[in-house]
């Protein structure tokens, strides 16, 4: 009896190929081939082809070879034509006809064995299916072992055969099997092994199969290869098993790796190592450690390949204790000297932030290679120790070692993190000389560095040089644009990216959503949101967090909240986005409430969480919550984090706890530039300008390099103090440090010069800002408004609109303020009525207060009251304060009383209301009411805020109060006042005695008026500065009417410009007149 040769059939497409192969018989008889249970349609096609071949008289030289090839062709073609599993149900049992006369029992088969059914199977190291081929009677017997991957259910039919076979041109080779497996794995032909000219050795076959497995990268391909090898009984071969396990790991299917491992008949140390590596590489550190413990308990030894994977698992699972235990095992087993293990130890310790330990281990490596250097270099970069990473590279460059592409990309990332663009450019030049600049990893790192540093010209240059920019290249460029607020450029890059055929991924879309938020392009963001929902990507964590952030920054917090609750698994990033969004929108109570919900849900926190919560705490001036967050930061170990420390300093400062803010700063182990900036800002915002400058001096003594935020805070401190000279000194610092191109510093300079009384210097600083944003324009317009240059402010506003810059609510407040200070009633009405329609800005309390104040000053009190009643919200203290001031100026007693009554409820602690009411009564000669007002103030225990004026001379601030005699030069000051008083009277000055409410004689009232704080400050400046120099004085309250009139006389007498900045505006006294036109 003949053993069957099993061949796979099941598709009409291969019928002709089957017949061609099976025709290869030199047997003279026509007993036929038996293929049972083949479909009728296939039977018909094969029969017709056999008939045609019989007529052609085709012959073949070797019938046995042709039968083997028949099975190979069928197997290959079925896979090639993608016949599904359901079609693999027809298997032919091919029986060769009788052998020719003379071919007897003693002949040898193809593989050189005796032609006996019992001869042993050829051993190859792989387990193949055995395919039996033979001849009936006393003819040829051969058992052939073939590497074919499918075994199906038997079925057959009977076919007639011609005695004239066709010679096949297909050589017998393992190539056919490999192409079969490659097709099953969906590999392109280039992934298949090269054609062979002769039958390969067994070793070559194993290598080719391993190479094929290594070239597969999809889980589908891995599963198909596994199935084919399993059915051909190859999956028990250790080399193939190990590579197949690793393949599942590369395809992110560690569970498949585990199941395959459990099927291993012999689980040796290589198998265990492969499984541990699969878990570690896929982020399953706990599973990897558990597997390692089981491996140890079974007595399986570890080697230099097992231990690095275990160390990686310790890093992945954040288990430092386990890492130290594995380190001890490495020392005991002597593997510490192995460079591969030592490199992994360096990386593990750096992952836990133990850079000193990591460096010691590195120094203990006898011959560190480039991987050793790269591991330590990456550790420093990962832990934000950028300067040390650059220093490490310099040491490395001096030695024999040189980084590879990964090391150089880490070095570029260090320059990015340290914001040291000059160093980055030097590294770029070095890479160009070495020829590394074209490497994709390094090119992407360079694009990222230049984009994040804001040098988009260089970023574009590097990007354009990349032969085929990948998704990382595009994402780096787009993310850099978004980081620096170039949102429209980021959107333009997205258009180019799609035009190039590159498909955006979730990281791209996350950046684009941020760009939509930054550009306030909510409609575009919502369109992207809709497309994400359609494509099913809206549930991706990165994209979802971006959506929450976008809606929050577009002041659509309700939509942000809905986007947040639509996230299936809300992790820390999602909570941070929502809390930060609430903080950004000024919804501080909600931010703190969400933080409480997050903590109640058992989630951990990070520095981003605490920073957002502290920002809301500072805005809400909630000192109690600030202390609670301080305690939480202490318990969770975040007091060493600079971001949290800076947030605490800011929160305590905003809560008027400057002393506590200073204590936090002093306890900071390593105060950096940001910490100094925070403390300088606290002192600046608290009116402690001198303390701010002391902190700045201390910062310079520690050789810390100030950045634009430091300069902005210092310039704001100068602005609050009207410290013109100190502001100029800071300006010189800015010039020396090359920060003039920074927009934040430029805006701060404009604000400082404007508030220090030099509108000319402010105009010059404004002209030097390279890219003027809405803040720049608003600062300059506001400066012109404060100085009474209303028409110039409106002209500048028109230029801003022409330049395509959209105003915000602050800009329009400055515009209305300019109209107010210049008395431009009609212009203010125009802008007020059209701001929502023309600019999309809703009216706020500040806008209403400006217009109501202007109408009141212009005597249009009825119109002002109509606007108050038309407000969509309750009028605040600034509105009623403007009405009270207007009532005092125009003598409308009834309106003044009404406004005062409301203010007593809104701001009972403010003394200004009582003073204005009393002055209104005094101006009308209602002395009984004056006494009543003063008595009410006394009964309410409200203390009048003392008037304070100050002047800056030679970097020092000198303050004065009314009747002040504490100054070293008091005698000279009062002598100067007396001299000026005599000259003023000769020039026609008559004091306004009625504004003084003291119950004293007129002569004493005149003396009291002449000793007001602003006059003392001016007198001191006159005796302390060169003749002709302008005098700049600031007062914390409104300048009084009598002093305002006196300064018009004094400026003319001394031939100097006197600049007084009061709480409302600047007064430039020159040539006997004031810039306000007596309208203030």
Shape summary: elongated
What fraction, in percent, of the residue positions are helical?
55-70%
Query: What is the alpha-carbon Rg in Å?
Result: 44 Å
Can you count the helices? 52
Q: Which regions are unreliable across 5 or more consecutive residues at pLDDT < 50?
A: 1-204
GO biological process, one term: RNA modification
Domain DYW: 988-1080
PPR repeats: 268-302, 369-403, 470-504, 571-605, 672-706, 773-807
Protein name: DYW domain-containing protein
Structure report:
The chain is mostly helical and 1080 residues long. Helix content is 61%, strand content 5%. It has a six-stranded mixed sheet with strand order 8-7-9-10-11-12, covered by helices on one side. It has a two-stranded antiparallel sheet with strand order 1-3. Strands 2-6 form a two-stranded antiparallel sheet. A hairpin with a 6-residue loop joins strand 4 and strand 5 (141-146). Keywords: Repeat. This is DYW domain-containing protein. It comes from Zingiber officinale (Ginger). Residues 988-1080 form the DYW domain.
Give a short overview:
The chain has 52 helices and 12 strands. It is mostly helical and 1080 residues long.
Write the layout of secondary structure elements.
Layout (H helix, E strand, L loop, with lengths): L4 E5 L5 H8 L10 E2 L5 H17 L6 H18 L9 E5 L34 E6 L6 E6 L11 E2 L15 H10 L17 H13 L4 H13 L6 H13 L3 H9 L6 H13 L3 H13 L8 H11 L3 H14 L5 H13 L3 H9 L6 H13 L3 H13 L6 H14 L2 H14 L5 H13 L3 H10 L5 H13 L3 H13 L6 H13 L3 H14 L5 H13 L3 H9 L6 H13 L3 H13 L6 H14 L2 H13 L6 H13 L3 H10 L5 H13 L3 H13 L6 H14 L2 H14 L5 H13 L3 H9 L6 H13 L3 H13 L6 H14 L2 H15 L5 H13 L3 H10 L6 H14 L2 H14 L5 H12 L3 H13 L8 E6 L2 E6 L8 H18 L14 H9 L2 H12 L6 E5 L5 H14 L3 E4 L4 E5 L2 E2 L6
Parallel strand pairs: 9-10
Antiparallel strand pairs: 1-3, 2-6, 4-5, 7-8, 7-9, 10-11, 11-12
Helix pairs in contact: 1-2, 1-3, 3-4, 5-7, 7-8, 7-9, 8-9, 9-10, 9-11, 10-11, 11-12, 11-13, 12-13, 13-14, 13-15, 14-15, 15-16, 15-17, 16-17, 17-18, 17-19, 19-20, 19-21, 20-21, 21-22, 21-23, 22-23, 23-24, 23-25, 25-26, 25-27, 26-27, 27-28, 27-29, 28-29, 29-30, 29-31, 30-31, 31-32, 31-33, ...
